[in-house]
Amino acid sequence: MLCRFAAASRSSAKLVAPLGCLVSRQKHTLPDLPYDYAALEPHINAEIMQLHHSKHHATYVNNLNVVEEKYKEALAKGDVTTQVSLQPALKFNGGGHINHSIFWTNLSPNGGGEPKGELMEAIKRDFGSFANFKEKLTAVSVGVQGSGWGWLGYNKEQGRLQIAACANQDPLQGTTGLIPLLGIDVWEHAYYLQYKNVRPDYLKAIWNVINWENVSSRYATCKK
Predict the structure, then answer these.
(1) What confidence tens digit (pLDDT) does each residue in 197-210 have?
(2) 100 annotated as belonging to a binding site for a ligand
């Protein structure tokens, strides 16, 4: 994964990469949003989006670049102890970069409503109805203790959709093996300025800006 974080929304490899990959890699950069900070209002306000993207996500990117440099040095020295000690920071900052890169594309000012086509058929097959799916993903996301994410993922081995929760910035695929389709950030920095500590209100609002076109595209890609 380390050699492919630059394409974080498409990356799902393991965290430990060969030395050659680390040596030749480019530094990770903060991806641009495909819309303005105020574009998701009134559901998510501009101040939240600006802080979330330009401060929180940027911090994950910067810290990931720093820890990768340290990891590269430890690999070059054969310092296994340091390599092991850096794994939590790689997981946290790398996961933060991956998760947020997916999250931004999962949102759209033209979002909301329900998916169509193959994704909708898969949701009905695996959850009974869109309403049941929405209720289950909302409940899982509300129930995350502390900080974390609620996810809709694709189980490639079983050929079906699954809902999961991940703590902190744990990446879905690296943690559960599920391919991420739709992620909902339930860290307080994603909603507190607008919704205070009432996470259910934030989750009710975010369904109005879900980019089902993007989620459907991700589903179609992962099935290939």
Answers:
(1) 999 999 999 999 99
(2) yes
